[in-house]
Every structure is written in C-alpha cells, then in structure tokens.
Amino acid sequence: MTEFLFIYGTLLSGYGHPMHEILGRYADLSGIGFINGKLYELGDYPGLVLSNNTSKVVWGEIYIIRENEELFRYLDEYEGCASHQPQPHEYRRDLVTIHDSPEHSLLAWTYLYKHAVTDLSLIPGGDYLSHRNKGRLKIVNQ
Prior knowledge:
Elements: E1 3-7, H1 19-26, E2 27-41, E3 46-50, E4 57-65, H2 68-78, E5 91-101, E6 104-113, E7 121-122, H3 128-131
Antiparallel strand pairs: 1-4, 2-3, 2-4, 2-7, 5-6
Helix pairs in contact: 1-2
C-alpha cells in the first residue's frame, strides 16, 4: 500500500532547510495539496491545526513515501515527537485526509500542533512559503 506524507512548513522544497535533503532520501515529491486547517506562526516554524471549516485550508507538498521506518525516524526527531524525547511533545504525527485536487482526497501522514493557539498569529492563506517571502508552492509534473 502506498503511503503519503503532507509537508506544510520548513521542510517544503522551496524553503531551503537542510533537513529537506533527508526527506528526499526516503520520499518522492508527488505534487501540491491542501488540508482543511489553520496554520499558526510559532516563531521560526508553523503549526497546523485541523479545522472542520472547508474554507480554511493549509497548502503543502505531497510526498510518496518509499521507506517509512527510516523517514519517520528522522522526521519524528526533527519535529520533537520521537518516543525518547521529553513530554509534552509540541507535535504529533497523525494520518489525516488531504486533497490533491478539489475533487479528490487521500490519507497522508502529517505533523499536527498539539497546544493551545489562543495567543498565536494565524498565517493568512495557509501558505507558509508565501508568508516567509520564499515564493509559492510549485506544481510538479507527474
């Protein structure tokens, strides 16, 4: 069974974070997608919170996972939610519904922010690259 990963923050291909190279070792970029949620500014990185409001979307990249055990060993560590890291974790890895088009959805792993968002700033438009003035998500030819 094919497994997917949804990336929406500092690991986006256009962001330029060194950890993106490790992501590329274990997964292949498939295209752009979105999830119903809200994106919050947490300082140097964002946090995603799911929403039932279909007008609230967060944009990101969809990856096809080739080696999930190795990939998640690195990503869980990076996201601060590896089993050996102290609790409470800021994120949790979860299987969620994402959309690769308005008419089509699929299940993908992503990292969800776990804490209160009351005092956090919402990232308008749900596009972290644009918010950080690093361009926009680019469509990948399939």
